[in-house]
Automatic annotation (TrEMBL):
Pfam families referenced in this protein's UniProt entry, alphabetically: Sulfotransfer_3
Protein name: Sulfotransferase
GO terms, molecular function: protein-tyrosine sulfotransferase activity
Transferase found in the keyword field: yes
Classification via PANTHER family: PROTEIN-TYROSINE SULFOTRANSFERASE, PROTEIN-TYROSINE SULFOTRANSFERASE 2
Amino acid sequence: MTSKLPIIMIGTQRSGSNLLRLILNEISIIAAPHPPHIIQRLMPLLFTYGDLSVSKNFKQLVNDTCQLIKLNPVPWERIKFDRNNILSRCMENTLVAVFSSVYDIYAEAWDAKIWCCKSLANVHYFPQINAYLPNAKYLYLYRDGRDVAVSFKEAVVGQKHFFHIAQQWRKDQHAALKIKKQLRGEQFFSLSYEDLINSPELSLYNLCGFLELEFSPTMLDFYNSREASNTSSSSTLWSNVSKPIIKKNSNKFLSKATKEEVKIFESVAGDVLDSLGYERNQTNMGEFRTFSQEEIAQFDLQNEKAKAQVRDMIDVKDKKRREQQLSLLEAIKSRCSLIDSKTY
């Protein structure tokens, strides 16, 4: 299915995944590009291609995947995709086959034996990925969800209200922990963001053991790399990756979130905080609360207002880079509309 060993990073964004990606990228035999989120973005649009066993349809999917990579905010260097090469590598006409093939090609361009995809939303596509890549290793990176919520509130992407962020965070962690139960021990590794930043050498030593690689202190020089520079300059989302690990960058919610925000988060996702070993701050262990339709409607309004405010502040160049990928996805959706209109 693939000539390389795949590492599939899973979890929730704003949990240090770009930091860990860049650290892994410092290992010469690992290629870890910035992800164009191939599966997350194209899997929901597969219906627009029709029957993928039809050569024309599958070639269109391959071409769109290449375009999505080409428009990625952080470029994939050293590589120019040959569509026929990708097609010849696919053992079946599926999106995961295309995904695997382009990552294999990228790894070969960097003389790497392992590739890492840090598109954390792949946590929700495990059945499809596992069916094609049964020997892949899964790296579950998690962070205190309340700090994730604080980070999302300040980010140019994602939800902004603690209620919505808690819902997604809870869903993502449950999915990751479910995968853990389905895999062999040598295929699944859990790492908390807090351990990574506070005990980086020990955390990476253990991770390298899982990957059957030798730990090198030079992994912690990631911030000097060209890839870190490219990533940092592409968006304010990733500005910190051009700096050394910021230790004690945890429990930010204690000073940056209101008590009510923390209480809402714990009321929604407290069970996962409990299971991952995070101490509650505003509720008791085991406590859970449902919210009324009126309360949720109010949360929705506040969330949309906050997202609109963030969109107004986004850097012009960053916005343009993101809009290029979004335009491609809209064009793919519009093809289906054209087909439907012709049908009628």
